[in-house]
Structures are given as C-alpha cells and as structure tokens.
Design a protein that fits this description.
The chain has about 290 residues and is an alpha+beta fold. It is about 45% helix and about 15% strand. The chain has a three-stranded mixed beta sheet, covered by helices on one side. A two-stranded antiparallel sheet has the order 4-5. Strands 6-7 form a two-stranded antiparallel ribbon.
C-alpha cells in the first residue's frame, strides 16, 4: 500500500510524493530486517491512528516466520502523574525507560486477532467490521473503542456529516471561531486524540468550499491554510462562522451529501461514491445503515 498511501498524502498537500514514499520505503525496509534481531518491540498508544498501525503490523508479522525473533508490545493510554495523556511523545527518557520494563511478548492469539481486525477494516463491506467488534477483543484492550471511532466517520443518517464535521459545526455554533481554537475545542470532544492539525485544516476547508458551504469566513474571503510562518495572521486570525445551511444541518434540516450533490470518499475498504452514501451512521442507534 505504500505507493497508494504516499500519493494520498501528497494529494492532501502533506508533502511531496517523493518525500512520502521515501518515508514508507524506509519503514518497510526496517520491517523487512526484523529477523536480524532477537526482539522487536512495538510502541503504540490507544488512539485510532496508532491502533490502525498496530493491527496492520500484527497482520504483517502473522504472515512471516518469527521463530528466531520475539515480537513484544508496549501499548498505553495513560502515564502516572500526567493528567492529560496524549501520547508517548510527552514522555522523557526515564519515563520511557519505565515503560520498556512493561513490554510483553505477543501471543499467537493476539497476532491472529490483529490480523482479523485488519482484514475487517479493509473489507468493502463495513458490516464485517461491525461484526468483528462484537467479538471479544480484550486481548488488544484499546482496539474496540478505536475502531468504533472509525465507524463514526461514516456520514450520519441525520445530516450526512461525519463525527468530525459535526463537532466542528457544534464548536463554531458555541462561539469558537478561529482555526486553532476550533481545533483545540474539537479535540476536547474526543475520548482519545483524533487527527493532527494538518488534516484538520482540510476538514475546515472542505466545509468552507462545498457547493453550499456550511462554514464561511466572516469577511467572505477564502479559507486560508497555514504557511511556514507559524504566526501567519492570515491563517490564525481568520474568523469562521456558520452559514444558514450549517445552522440547518445542526438541527437535522440539511444534508451535507445531498446539498453537495454526492460523495466520493474512501473509508478504508469502503468506497462511498455517487449521489448518496451507500452506508451511513445512525446516531441514535449507534450502528451502520446500508442498502
């Protein structure tokens, strides 16, 4: 998937295709040399981004000869004396060292569970993933909540918005109007860290530039992305407000997909394409609704 993923990230303006591909090639080459080591330790966190990387790796390792190498895991959602744990990057060297002592070898059942999760996530039928989540996944304790969060990114039956889009509109409606403040406020609505800031600006831009936008700049200008200048006022000081369609969406009287005449989006193995989404997330019943 490395070439496809690199092209996707480049298309999102997160770097050049060559830079993205070089990162993936480096990762893949490192993985391919795992058998040269007595032990390989996977360090991950509890959020969706990390859990997806973890199950991809568990699937990969489950298909390779591991007789000479122990595959161990460190996976945490908290750390002592850190009130708001976001990730391993918050920890200093001694704190990371203390986690090193907690590593544990992965069992065949955990590798199998991870592989099953990855295959369900990649399926073109999202009901396969819902069925997987009814299994006992306690061997990977953070997986169920993370994959449930993925399902909430499907457009809602009520309004056609993903959870991220809906939270953005709710935050703006509450009186938060500048991009950095909107980002922080939407993160406060998440049970676990979700999205970095760069993809988040794409969500804001998308809501500002549909056929009938749900957000607009108060001065009627075009949404301004951040530049290399971290203090760029054109980005930091722009004020975003709800349009009439955005206000209607929050009370269930407007549908993002229908207003914008369709959808073309991949949610892993599921391609939502055409005048309406084949699958939607029912907010009341917390389940997918399909054809």
């Amino acid at each position: 998937m490395s070439q496809i993923r690199a092209q996707f990230l480049a298309d999102c303006a997160l770097g050049s295709y060559e830079e993205m591909l070089a990162d993936f090639i480096s990762r893949d080459s490192t993985l391919a040399r795992f058998a040269a080591h007595k032990e390989v330790i996977l360090w991950f966190e509890h959020d969706l981004y990390d859990q997806l990387q973890l199950i991809q790796l568990l699937d990969w390792f489950s298909r390779h000869d591991r007789d000479a190498t122990t595959i161990s895991l460190i996976c945490v959602n908290a750390f002592p004396d850190i009130a708001h744990f976001i990730g391993l990057g918050q920890l200093n060297a001694s704190q990371l060292r203390s986690l090193y002592e907690t590593r544990r070898p992965l069992t065949e059942s955990e590798l199998t569970l991870g592989s099953e999760a990855w295959k369900a996530y990649c399926s073109p039928d999202p009901k396969v993933l819902e069925a997987f989540l009814r299994k006992d996944t306690s061997a990977l304790p953070f997986l169920k909540a993370a994959l449930r969060r993925h399902l909430e990114q499907f457009p809602a039956l009520q309004g056609g918005l993903s959870r991220t889009q809906r939270q953005i509109l709710e935050v703006v409606a509450s009186g938060v109007h500048k991009p950095l403040e909107i980002f922080r406020a939407t993160q406060e609505k998440e049970e676990s860290p979700f999205l970095g800031d760069s993809p988040f600006w794409l969500y804001l831009s998308h809501l500002c530039t549909g056929k009938k936008p749900f957000l607009t700049r108060a001065d009627d200008g075009t949404f301004s992305f951040p530049t290399t200048d971290s203090h760029d006022p054109a980005f930091r000081e722009q004020v975003l407000v709800l349009t009439e369609e955005g206000r209607n969406a929050l009370v269930g009287q407007a549908d993002w997909i229908k207003i914008n005449r369709g959808i073309d989006r991949w949610l892993r193995g599921v391609h939502l394409q055409g005048p309406d989404a084949a699958w939607r997330w029912d907010l009341q019943r917390a389940t997918l609704v399909g054809p």
